[in-house]
Amino acid sequence: MRESTSTVVVERVADPGPDTCAEWDRLVARTPGTDVTQLSVWARVRAGQRFVPLHLLARRDGVLVGGALVLVRRVRGFGSLGYVPYGPVAGFADGRAEVVAALADALSSLRLRMLFVQPPEGAEDVSGALVDRGFRPSAAEIAPTGSMRIDLGPDEAALRAALSRRLRYWTGRWADRGVTVRRGDERDVPLLVELMGTAAAARGYPRPPRLDYVTTLYAELARTGNVALFVGEVHGVPVSADLVTVCGDTVRGKLCGFDRDGDGRRLSVPAAARWEIIRWARRSGHRFIDFGGLSEATLCGATAGVRDDESWPSADRAKMAFGGTAFRYPAPVELIRPVPLRWAYDAAGRSAAGRALVARARIVLRSSAPTRPAAEAGP
């Protein structure tokens, strides 16, 4: 099926084939603000969780100029749910408005009971176009509302100077205290999941993803060069692990775990791992690093210019200690049809059973997003 707006034609494709996937991946990688969750490899990552991919491919005169990877899954009690994580993708060159309009038309015409869209950074026009076509702002909290970014353009000395006073002190002490950070591989994935479980239990977070899912995630992204794993150790004993993803010029925190007992917390080992990730990302030629989502309270303060606040969650303070710049993502939107289902969905939030059902759907979809359980590194 094809839909068109002006000279832009949008095609729905279930299996684009290797050549089209390669073309799509090149577009995603060179478009600012996008994420691995729009790369074709992500469809393989999510296949084990019963997600079926649907590609919307926008072309102008045969040239691919935009699109979206829509992840579709049937959830009991809701029907078929769709999620577009950090998409749709559209270049910022001349003619963008036409591409955004065509993709908004295509998304609004999908036959799904629920469709959630989190536009990528800088794509406020996408949210507006979708609202014009019947979507509404979403409070489903499937993706973080904002995050923080470090510009890796300055030299290492300048990056170190931007750290908090405590972290500047530790960058010269970790080696003497037996703290080391090494690159991990597939053999360290069980360790990552174990440390994620330890951190979740200590902080009361939801259970981490299953080992088989994280194993698939690492294997698929390692095959395409879109992932790296770092393990922090004290005298050779692993106490922290960070999995980051790579898309275009940006490195993003995806999953992390930390054992708070023993010397790991006292020596700020998670911060040592993040500092090594910064240094590695810069040496590797990447331009930005994003350590993951921020809470709304931290985001409001940080975007207003506050560097640190004791009232912020400790995990947020640990991220902001690296001197990054906070930013807010465009508003997420949702389309729920038919109207009786939307009423039922809204009513569900007013009962315990309904909230549990909505929370289940949120967890199913949220694991598609680049969020990560936070290990405390200390400010």
From TrEMBL:
Keywords: Acyltransferase, Cell shape, Cell wall biogenesis/degradation, Peptidoglycan synthesis, Transferase. One of its GO terms (biological process) is cell wall organization. Residues 176-293 form the BioF2-like acetyltransferase domain. This is GNAT family N-acetyltransferase. It comes from the Bacteria. It holds the Pfam family Acetyltransf_6. Gene3D superfamilies: 3.40.630.30. One of its GO terms (molecular function) is aminoacyltransferase activity. Belongs to the FemABX family.
